[in-house]
Amino acid sequence: MPSYSHDAMTSLVDVKHGLISREIFVNDDLYQQEQEQVFARAWLFIGHESQIPEPGDYVTSCMGEESVILTRDRDHHIHVFLNTCRHRGMKVCRYDEGNTPVFTCPYHGWSFATDGKLVGVPHQQAAYRGQLDVSQWGLIEVAQMTNYKGTIWATWDPAAPPFLDYLGEMKGYLDTALDCRDGREGGSEVIGGIQKWVIPANWKFAAENFAGDSYHNISHRSVDLVGIGPSGEGRRDMAERKRSKRVVSCIPNTGHSAVSFLEPEDMPFVPSYENNPVVRDYFQHVYEERRRRMGSASRLQGLVGTVFPNTSYLARQPRTISVWLPRGATKTEAWRWFLVDKDAPSEVKEVMRHYAMRYSGPGGMTEQDDMENWNYASAASKGVIARRYPYNYEMGVGLEYADNGLPGQVAERISEHNQRGFYQHWAKLMAALSWDEVMAR
Ligand code: FES
Ligand code: FE
């Protein structure tokens, strides 16, 4: 039974009045409840199939606080295992990535095949005298796993709804980050390694920012002035957006939300990378292909979004997936993957890789701005006095509406509608005893 009940969560998260307690960002007991109620039950992003193309390939990833192994077995099946030995708990795989026929535990040497089976026990006959049932002591596998357009997701909860039900109408927005620029489904690969860094703030600061904080442009003013964008203007290609309408969308009862652009029907291709004909021509080609393949649906251009609870995307080039891993009430480990169209010319991929490094993560020029905010906001919210005062999420209360052409409940550009949807769902999941309760409207 969760220690913070439904009533307690309602007093912490009052979306009707746009008031959310600082406790949910700093309190250790709430953090522990989150591990059970949110991270042990929700669908979580693990990695991309292009990271493990061959049998025996593996990468280590995380589900919430816990390390997992994403691997491809000899029959090409993908698995996600808890990265812990069944004998005495040693971390079985201590590398970030590689290829192996078996995972051999460094402590006493139990070996597990890439399908998770326990296949080697040192001195098995002499030590166990035939009493060890190896079929019962394989690696612990997730309850459900799916490969959605090349992205691998998993949950520890056998009762969780199937991934596509869990995603609901968010699919339409997530696809803007997962499909190729020309509108083909999937067909992406990860470029470079995964960026990993630590942020001294609660994971929800990052998740809600990507869920729909369209209000923090002042934070990025300096980098916009520098002009690191592909066309030498703002940090992203802003030219193509000047005629587009920005919308924030929240998918009710899921916690998922997105910020997107709706392009006018007659919007022409706006070239970026004009000084590089290969890259410019590639983007012109994919723009025209996208319009041809998708028709009016191509008008929806993704910007950012968060798949509840902790997977965010940036749908620009290169597309990114970020995961905000909880490491304590006021500590988060951020991991970021960069996606490009697998069949793009190598020069395009190389330019994207450079842009990713320039833009993103702690070594880029943009995101320190965000991290600086979360860092100081977290530190300034921990004290016993500060905790008495809730944050303000009033912006745009009651102004959301259903739009026939767009999934979810939509609001105009500047609103905290998405954040309220995120926390409403978070509070519900924190107190709910079953998925029936979570999914009930
Ligand atoms: Fe792994 Fe003992 S802890 S073999
Ligand atoms: Fe930002």
UniProtKB/TrEMBL annotation:
An MF annotation (GO) of this entry: iron ion binding
Top-level lineage group: Bacteria
Keywords annotated in UniProt: 2Fe-2S, Aromatic hydrocarbons catabolism, Dioxygenase, Iron, Iron-sulfur, Metal-binding, NAD, Oxidoreductase
Database matches in InterPro entries: ARHD_Rieske_2Fe_2S, RHO_NdoB-like_C, Rieske_2Fe-2S, Rieske_2Fe-2S_sf, Ring_hydroxy_dOase_asu_C_dom, Rng_hydr_dOase-A
Domain Rieske: 43-141
Pfam family, one: Rieske
Family membership noted in the UniProt record: Belongs to the bacterial ring-hydroxylating dioxygenase alpha subunit family.
Protein name according to UniProt: Hydrogenase
